[in-house]
Amino acid sequence: MAFHKVKMVVDREYRIGQVDERIYGSFIEHLGRAVYDGIYCPEHASADENGFREDVKELIRELNVPIIRYPGGNFVSNFYWEDSVGPLQERPRRLELAWRSMEENKVGLNEFTKWTRSAGSDVMMAVNLGTRGIADACNLLEYCNHPGSSKYSDLRISHGYKEPHKIKTWCLGNEMDGPWQIGHKTMEEYGRLAEETARAMKLIDPDIELVSCGSSSLTMPTFPDWEAMTLWHTYDYVDYISMHQYYGNRDGDSQDFLACSDDMDQFIRTVIATCDFVKARKRGKKDIKISFDEWNVWYHSNTADDDITKNHPWQVAPPMLEDIYNFEDALLVGLMLITLLKHADRVKMACLAQLVNVIAPIMTEAGGGRAWRQTIFYPFMHASKYGRGTALLPVISTPKFDTSSHEDVTAIEAVSVYNEALDEVTIFAVNRDLKNDAEMTVDVRSFEGYRILEHVVLESDDLLAVNGPFGEKVAPKQASQSSLDGGVMTSILHKASWNVIRLGK
């Protein structure tokens, strides 16, 4: 087995931008067992007085998730928020069209907002621009944010919530470019509707942030015309445009699968270029930021999901999108996190989709059993914990190779984050070569007086190894693979490994 030779420079002056903590956001949709039997399970031994699982909440706190997108996702495009508030016994059961399930509305807007705050997070609220529109978005905003003495704010108060929820970030619909979406729109239709909705919502609460719907993936036939057309309408009113992307190793080509983060990088670069084109055309002054509010690996459960929606519809919280993640999935999640951090100047929010049970880092056994950490839990936890501060430009020299669908794939992908308040710098690195280890020498002379605090590695001899409720085959461990001498650090990065190298004073 050969060693790759890799060189890297980490300098505190080579700055990409400040990392917004909301880049470590996540997502809860009324889909499958995400809410019911996920975060909410009144019969569980750990359930609090409101029926929410404390064991799940502890794992969420471990991930330190600052913002959670709600209530969808495809679910939002037929969401009647009024059904989800008020006395529980008066809430209707409703046919949920996106996933062909039955929504009982036992957990609604107020309960979720209260739960989110108890988990140490904030809500990113989405409005229904599929089957509804401007008036309903405004009514929802008034209900959530207006202090009182108006129809919908007084309705909230009558429901036992005197203080407004003060939700700052709002999504103008979800994946409106997708023909699968209830109320799918053309570019012109969505652009006009989003513009008028945004303008009206800003009249109610000028301090909110708004996210305009971008393309549902890099492969959409309307990409990037969708961004250019819709932003032409919404530019003056919105702060962000959304991006969504999922990957899956459907043909079993693991080396090519790990190159998919290169596609994500190109997707981000194209959206930034399109945003800047609209800014120039508008003679605008502000940069549109990116909310990458759906991203993950998703493919393991597709066949089972299709069977439920087609052959067994209208169940309450059926098990859907329950991907059991393996080790190679964790590597790609790490690579996607590195990609987000490399664009920290423009990507200011991101949501790992989703948080519990549904394509999630946290799983629970059906029927109120154990909660456990999936393989992808760990790269996300490490990045959320140590990736706060200023992202530094990775100056790196690494071997490259071709895969079945990608060219010039870098063996080593890495980025570093400087936390000035803690006097720490953390290097996140993935060796995505499946055959060769790498010796990486890193020039860290600008961090004089620093020492290696730890080198944490996630690795496995089995790319398909998974975790479960009774044990973790994939878990991080301390490594002794890094040394520092004279401002130069030498680290061994094993083949197919996620590495977190922390330096501090």
What can you see in these coordinates?
With 505 residues, this protein is of the alpha/beta class. The protein is 26% helix and 27% strand. The chain has eleven helices and 28 strands. The strands form seven sheets. The protein has an eight-stranded parallel β-barrel, surrounded by six helices. It is globular. The model has no long low-confidence stretch (mean pLDDT 97).
Q: Given the helix and strand composition, which structural class is it? A: alpha/beta
Q: Sheet bearing the most strands, described?
A: 8 strands, parallel, barrel
Helix count, per DSSP? Answer: 11
Global geometry:
globular
Share in helix: 25-40%
- The protein's oligomeric status is single chain
Determine Rg (CA atoms, Å).
23 Å
Portion in strands: 25-35%
Summarize the structure.
Helix content is 26%, strand content 27%.
Quickly list its features:
505 residues; alpha/beta; 7-stranded antiparallel sheet; 11 helices; 27% strand; globular
